[in-house]
Amino acid sequence: MYRRITDPKGGMVAIHFEGQRLPVHANETVAAAILAATPGYTRTTVVSGDKRAPYCMMGTCFECLMEIDGVQNRQACMTTVADGMIVKRQMGKREMPE
């Protein structure tokens, strides 16, 4: 499983993940918060629908793409949580913004 390393002075914030309120440590990334709180995945693949989870946690692999605050294709490992943030798994193919 994953071990959470956080700043003890950071406090807690609440994000909304898949319609559920989720208390998480402030100053951690969305990917770290989701992996620590829920076993599972952050997105599904375009072709087969297979479940995928963050791999590199440093912005290189793009396996952590999620919909964050209504914006698709956001790298969850490069996005810091914020109070009230709305996070959804990215399911399959998403449209690129114009």
Q: Could you give a quick summary of the protein structure above?
A:
The chain is mainly β and 98 residues long. It has one helix at 30-37; strands spanning 12-17, 20-25, 43-44, 51-52, 65-68, 71-75, 86-89. It has a single domain, classed as 2Fe-2S iron-sulphur cluster binding domain, sarcosine oxidase, alpha subunit, N-terminal domain (Ubiquitin-like (UB roll)).
Write out the CATH superfamily name: 2Fe-2S iron-sulphur cluster binding domain, sarcosine oxidase, alpha subunit, N-terminal domain
Percent of sequence in beta strands: 25-35%
Secondary structural class: mainly beta
Q: Which stretches are low in confidence, meaning pLDDT under 50 for 5 or more residues running? A: none
* Tertiary shape: globular
What is the correct CATH architecture?
Answer: Roll
Report the helical percentage: under 10%
H-E order:
EEHEEEEE
CATH class category name: Alpha Beta
Work out the number of β strands.
Answer: 7
The strands making up the biggest β-sheet line up spatially as 2-1-7-5-6
Radius of gyration: 13 Å
Q: How many individual domains?
A: 1
Cα-to-Cα separation, first versus last residue = 39 Å
The average pLDDT value, as a whole number, equals 86
The CATH topology: Ubiquitin-like (UB roll)
Report on the biggest sheet. Answer: 5 strands, mixed
* Count of helical stretches: 1
Question: What can you see in these coordinates?
Answer:
- The structure is a single chain.
- The protein is mainly β.
- The protein has a single domain, classed as Ubiquitin-like (UB roll), CATH 3.10.20.440.
- The chain has one helix spanning 30-37; strands at 12-17, 20-25, 43-44, 51-52, 65-68, 71-75, 86-89.
- The strands form 2 sheets. A 5-stranded mixed beta sheet has the order 2-1-7-5-6, covered by helices on one side. A two-stranded antiparallel ribbon has the order 3-4.
- The protein is globular and about 40 Å long.
